[in-house]
Prior knowledge:
The chain is about 15% helix and about 35% strand. The chain is α+β, with helices and mostly antiparallel strands. A hairpin with a 2-residue loop joins strand 4 and strand 5. Helix 7 packs antiparallel against helix 8 and helix 7 packs antiparallel against helix 9. It starts with a helix and ends in an 8-residue tail after the last strand. Keywords: Membrane, Signal, Transmembrane, Transmembrane helix.
Amino acid sequence: MKKRLVLAACSFFLMSGTALADPISIGSAIISGLLSVGAAGILPAMSAGLLGSIVLGAGVLGAQFLAGAFFGPRAPKMDPGEFKSTFETGNSSEIRAIGRVRVGGLKAFGNTKDLDRWRVICHTKGPIAAVEEHYVGGREVTVDADGMVTSPPWARKGGAWLYIRSKIGDGSETAWPDLKTAFPDLWTDGHRARGIAQSLLRYISPGIEDEKFLKLYQGGEPPYERVQRSELIFDPRDSSQNADNPVTWKYSDNGILGATHILRSYPSLKSSDIDWAFTAQEATRADHIGAVVAGNEVRARAWGLWPSERERGDVMDQVLKSIGAEIISTDNNKFAVRLIDDQRTPELALTERDIVDLQWKSGPDSVERPNVCRIKYYSPERNYEMAEIPLSKTPNEPGAQPLPWSRYQNEIDRVGEQYFDVELPFCPSAAQAQRIGRRLFALARADVGVVTTNFAGLAAWGKSFISLELPDLDESVNAAIGTPRINDGDGTVEIPFVVWPTLTPWDVDLDEAPPPDPIPDMQYEAVLDTPAKPSGYAQVQYSDGSYELRVLFNGVSGADSSEAVFRPYTSGEPEAWSTMSISGAPTGLQCGYVTGNYSGRQVDFRARFFNEDDEGSYWSPTLLVASVAIENPSLTAPTLNVTRTSNGSGSYTFVVNVSSTDVHARSVSWIATVGGSQVASGGGNSRPGQIFSGQFSASTGTFDRTVVVTATAQNSAGMNSPAATYSYTIPGNGGGSG
């Protein structure tokens, strides 16, 4: 007998190759813990009643083991939306973030001087990539590069009532100079908050007797939030980045890279413990673009926030579930994060001769079997809150039908609704959430059990998906497994499993519901009509070689002022919205413009309007320009208006007004001649909404004299438009025609 055991062990080690290259590691709590993280995203939650009824005589040890492998301990729920607010506390954990998030933060300093209020807000651990959007009192505002808030009601002539300045938290922070000046006894060189992405806000008071004060500060200073691209992470596919040099890292919301970024923060792991080659392959899979209801989208992204004091295992578990992935041990004894597919290939086959015992339960009992799926995700459409997806193709129509996979009506009719709730706090996509939710829902309804094997079961170590040959049935099933457990006393291995469901390939037209409707900015009721989407743009080059970017839009009735903004993209990611100067009347055609050459870059434009009380419209729909280019289309003739006034005694004054509504026109010019001789001219660099005026005089003579005014527009190539012409003939007798 002993001889057979020795030979069996030798045979096993020879067959298993590198899987057991380090037998001591099988008992490592660290490795076992890492490989079990994320199991909650693969294996279903199971009740104690279900475990107790798997098989009579399964034994206390087996039931406890299965319980631990499948549903305990469960990570507490996470709500990234709770970090949107600005809060005060004497003891706060550092906030961490990956991907794109909306965040308030800790009010680390607040004081008042000369009625001006100063606030320092610590947002998240740095360094971050960029700030994309700013919100004051829940209302989006535009912030210039120097920190000046240019949106009403904060804008004023020569400055602003609010300044917001930011630091990315790269560790090079020094004390805020403005605070050192305003509060020299409170804020010193030692107040640096290094490594924290932070903002300094200065709320300027117009004076408490000024009616503007109540408009701005009736409820105190309004809180500040922002949308930011968060922590920089390492991408092994980029040769310019170094895994051990954070200065070289860049922003990415790739789900695999984000999960690996968190994984490597485990104190027991070094960079060399990560299989970067495998990670690069999986990151490319996560970036695969596929069809969704709204168009096209990458497969797996990760956005979210969490307090750094939260247990890493809890955070890791939620991230893995949100991107549909698992931690694995690769063949070279390293770790990596791997995406989970609906259709999987077994990593190991256990045959009938390997199996000592098999305990099986055909899914939950009918009264416990979930029959309705509900899914929540970190929704940018719902202002970066956890939001539920209405699982219907037509959720807003009466009698909307649920998605076929999300509800089992025949079971509901018998036992009532049994909900299965999927919460994905690091998933920013309704499409991604539904693909993951369908799989988790099917797994929650699947058959489960524990297989006891001989030493061949040790080969399942580091595996997550195997094939089981069912004794006496001459068939096999595929199953996801928990971490194996060795029973030294009888030389067996226990492996908990859940039978992998058969899922049809994902069909967007049948299986996917649209995302929830976006929440409008309801805090401020719009009193003006929403403007139409900007009608066009142009990148213009003036004759002196300088450049200007323009956008054309139309005013709305009742408007007193307007705001046009744009945001260029860098490496596919948007920068913060920036203000454009404006020409034209707020109720008519207007042109927003900014100096610079943005050729080849993606740029977005939008506009909004305000009345004389600074009450505004909603933003217009956004004009998306995939690649800015200098275009030189043929221009239409400019608008020419000439007014003639008689001065008596045969003398006339002619007033000339010239303008062009073409956004591609870089300049207009006009020339006036009397009797063929030039007497006046005008024009210059031109924008839509801009009028060039001039005047000249002409008198009667012995012979008829013809007054001619011509005007043309020029594009960036210097090509003239057709001429607009005015003429008037002054006869020798002082009469005339024109």
